[in-house]
Request: fold
Amino acid sequence: MDLAQALGFILLGFGTGAYGTLIGAGGGFVLMPLLLLLFPNEQADVLTSISLAVVFFNAASGTGAYASMRRIDYRSGLAFALAATPGAVLGALGTGLLPRRAFDTIFGALLVAGAVFLIMRSPRPGSQPRARTEGEGGHLTHRRIVDSQGVVHEYAFPLRRGVVISVFVGFVSSFLGIGGGIIHVPAMIYLLDFPVHVATATSHFVLMLMALAGTLTHVAIGSFHHGLERTLYLSIGVLGGAQAGAYLSNHIKGRFIIQSLALALAFVGARILLLGLS
Reply:
């Protein structure tokens, strides 16, 4: 790889890290479509191994930034990560079994479906999250987090539902190489009623552990070896980009984060779906 290519991968990593951390999605949903377009003849398992490794470094850097902001719900995050890890391993093992065109079609359709869901469920300006009662979804787990700016986040959610969702997220995220934030963040906000900023921060913590499990699986089966150099340069950029994204999150409203995620999903999902169907 020459200097220009290396610099291009570093810049791509920076943009991926900044945007992925801002919306709590880990950046895999941005990076993976670009890898599919840049390397049309590469096997899907090689590209997912690159994406998952970069998601890990992005999530690790973003987790450090969010930890200093004290927005991470560690107890819930650990429960979600433990539930997601087996699925992440199975997803990494299953990627190599799918033909490239079928992979592209599934990938694009999932992203478009996620965009439609977010657009339909987007909250109106000034609206507040609906409070749950103990009769909804069984026993509720209550959390109270005070972040570094003194903002109090109080919420209640069905922990068992969150664990079940995380099992699914672990498999899909590793299978597609997207890290899972594009699924986990909307699920935590709309199905578990997490505050937006707590959801994005906690999602990054979960992503870090999920992506590590998926990456180690790719290392063990040998698919990661072919993407080592590209991963190195992308990860250099991602480490700085994640810090920039976490900083920007202090200055951007939660509604904009959700809308930004929906628009990005719609754009890249449509592009990859057309690629798979062509």
